[in-house]
Amino acid sequence: MDDLRIEALDADAIGVARAELDRKTKPRGSLGRLEELAVQLAGIGVTGPRCAIVVAAADHGYADESVSAYPAEVTRQMLQVFASGGAAICVLSRLVGAELVVVDAGVREKLDDDRVRSIRIGAGTANAAHGPAMSREQALAALDAGISLARELAGRVDILALGDMGIGNTTAAGALHAALLDAPAAVVCGPGTGLDQDGVLRKAAVIERALAANRPLDDPVDVLAALGGFEIALLAGIALGAAAERLAIVLDGFIVTASALVAARIAPSVVDYMVAGHLSPEPGHRLGLDALGLKPLLDLDLRLGEGTGAALALPLLRAALALLAEMATFADAGVTDAGR
Q: Is the confidence at residue 297, as pLDDT, over 90?
């Protein structure tokens, strides 16, 4: 991360985009959030619609605490479904015309499949309820690997959407939200993939134990190492690298937002490059987005992960780009501009 540099958005490009939108054949501001998106994308420097969705998968020691409705082996099994093209994110990536990049960031048992990118930091994290989930060196390695992947993808895309897979990772995300936002565990815990109320209470108790077992935490990398997951660390690195390469970053749900919080604590200017794809029902998700100052584009009660909410938001970014580039102006169309 030593050579990472994230520049401010281009103020001149923002001004030009705003002026151009005001010249379009519509009342000023009448396209609402689409105009905001167009201006943000102009400031980032995005002009093309090329998109990729990165889904990072890893296993978690938290799974040993029965914090999920599914067993740990499901992470690897879902990697196989991603590779075969049958998962929800595979369907949606084809639908929106986005390249899908599936990454094994640290599943317990490696999947030998050329369709899955292997960036393994370890064979799953340790149980953070008893001590750090990973070492600081592993956290830094995952961040650097994510930055490198973003730099590689920058040669062929303009927009990166981020997704996740990992049994137990809503617990990791909850712990990170609790630590970074100084929030009670009970406030950031939800049902995840389908826990009942007793399960949610058990998850909150595990997070409290993890917070107690890992104090003190001095900086965001220490927080990430103590409480996070390999896929969350990799996604945080991808966000940092994407911003440095002037790519737009579309966030998925609660877990990806945890990675965004980590990235924002490392380099606050990364948030300017982020778009919140959707709001999930996880109670901590809105808390995280509010802390980042991001407004979600969609609210569809999605709680799958995989990048599905981010994928569904991609057409909105493309619409914003198209409107700015292709919509007629009052002068072009010979229409009287009542706003002048």
A: yes
Core vs surface per residue 167-203: b (16+ CB within 10 A) or e: bbbbbbbbbbbbbbbebebbebbbbbeebeeebbebb
Residue type at position 3 = D
Q: What is the mean pLDDT of residues 256-281?
A: 98
Query: Half-sphere exposure (CA, 13 Å, Cβ side) for 144?
Result: 10
Dihedral of the alpha carbons of 220, 143, 60, 285, in degrees to the nearest 10: 60
In the structure, what pLDDT confidence band is assigned to residue 69 with cuts at 50, 70 and 90?
confident
Active-site pick, 35, 245, 282, 306: 306
d(CA 140, CA 221) in angstroms, rounded, equals 7
Mean pLDDT of 6-17: 98
List own/partner pairs for 194-200 with CB under 8 A and 24 or more apart.
194/69, 195/67, 195/68, 195/69, 199/66, 199/67, 199/69
Q: How many other C-beta atoms are found inside a 10 Å radius of the C-beta of residue 47? A: 12
* CB-CB contact of 271 with 249 (8 Å): no
| Per-residue pLDDT band at 109 (split at 50, 70, 90) | very high
Q: Which domains does the chain have, with CATH numbers?
A: 51-318 (3.40.50.10210)
- Please give the order of strands across the beta sheet that includes 159-165: 117-118, 99-106, 51-58, 159-165, 248-251, 274-276
Res 93: pLDDT: 98
Kindly write down the DSSP assignment for every residue of 199-240, as one continuous string.
HHHHHHHHHHHHHHHT----SHHHHHHHH--HHHHHHHHHHH
| Rg, Å, the chain Cα set | 20
- Residue 98: closest CA among 274, 301, 294, 310: 310
- Residue 333's alpha-carbon distances to 23, 24, 330, 336, in angstroms, are 11, 9, 5, 9
306: annotated active-site residue: yes
Cα separation, 269 vs 291, in Å, equals 14
Nearest partner of 229 among 279, 175, 283, 296, judged by Cα:
175
Buried b (16+ CB within 10 A) or exposed e, 137-154: ebbbbbbbbbbebbeebb
